[in-house]
Amino acid sequence: MAIPDYQTLMLPVLRIAAKGETRVPEVAEKMADELGLAPDEREEMLPSGRQRVLHNRIHWAKFYMTKAGLIDSPARGRFVASEAGRELLASNPTRLDTRMLMDYPGFREFYESSHSKGSSNDRVSDREPAIVVDETETPEEQIEAAYRSLNAALRADLLDRIRENSPAFFEKLIVDLLVAMGYGGSHKNAAEQLGRSGDGGVDGVINEDRLGLDRIYVQAKRYAEENTICRPAVQGFVGSLVGFGATKGVFVTASTFSSGAVSYAKNLPQRVILIDGNRLADLMIEHGVGTRPHRTIQVQRLDEDFFSEDG
Predict the structure, then answer these.
(1) How many separate domains does the chain show?
(2) In the list 96, 107, 119, 279, which could disulfide-bond 10, CB 3.0-4.6 Å?
């Protein structure tokens, strides 16, 4: 089954915490067993790859209940149900979520202050929160979802602009990208290498490293979105590699490859990498080619070591 959202996890987490002091990893293991999560679901990571999804959602469920006074933290990294939390459980609730937590003054004060768009002096103490309290995603998940949405829009914009420009511009773009990724030595040398072939099914060759110990042959096709590159085109490129005695090639397009072309490239003695439009745009974003930073948001975390008085 899918991992429940953090609000759905609140009540189960509180029940476990009512049995004694515990930690997020311990609760995660118990919850995974109770929910019957598959091994891959237990290990599922946030898109950033920095934390397991289940751990993240349990953390936020615990954090919000702490703000409501339902959970106490007697020691670093450990938590337990408070007297208020035990009283709530005694009433046999069927669900616990942020909307119910708004009945607790501590959580309401925290929520209104953290969601206010103005300063604390501008707030009216009895006004309703600016944001609805029925979100199902944790703050990290909301940030990463917004990041993915922005990148998806940027990817589409990049591909539109690429297709509006000439094939010569596309080849220059490939040079810029390969150099940004660490290939080709200097930009001047890379441009010379990529621009000199143009025959035999190969648009150019670029050094794999600065010393030129190995070389990569490149085919660049700036096709319209609807023009899928099929297996024969990739076969022609591979034939050219054989003719040059090459073992490595990169076929780049602004469109897509057919499933037959992809399957063919996977089973070759030569190492041939196919880069379609979406992957090309992702690499451009990753290496800052054709893009530039617009806004940087740094998310700080508590430094537990700073507050440790041990030793």
Answers:
(1) 2
(2) 96
Whether residue 159 lies inside any domain: the answer is yes
Q: Tens digit of pLDDT for each residue in 228-264?
A: 999 999 999 999 888 888 889 999 999 999 999 999 9
pLDDT (tens digit, 9 = 90+) per residue, 115-148? 665 434 443 333 333 334 557 888 888 888 888 8
At 13-50, the pLDDT tens digits run: 999 999 999 999 999 999 999 999 999 999 999 877 88
Residue with tokens 């440790």: 308
Closest CA to 222 of 283, 160, 270: 160
Domain, as residue range, for 223? 152-287
Q: What's the rounded Cα separation, in Å, for the pair 116 and 109?
A: 11
Q: Which of 50-59, 175-184, 246-255 comes out lowest in average pLDDT?
A: 175-184
User: Could you tell me if 17 and 111 lie in one domain?
Assistant: yes
Amino acid, res. 270: Q
Cβ–Cβ under 8 Å, residues 272 and 251? yes
Is the entire prediction scored with pTM above 0.85?
Answer: no
Token pair of 147, please?
């990041």
Neighbours of 190 (CB within 10 A): 20
What phi and psi values does residue 52 have, to the nearest 5 degrees?
Answer: -70, 145
Percent helix, percent strand, percent coil in the chain, to nearest 5: 50, 10, 40
In a domain, 141, yes or no: no
Residue 25 is assigned to a structural domain of this protein: yes
| CATH number (domain holding residue 22) | 1.10.10.10
CATH number at residue 258: 3.40.1350.10
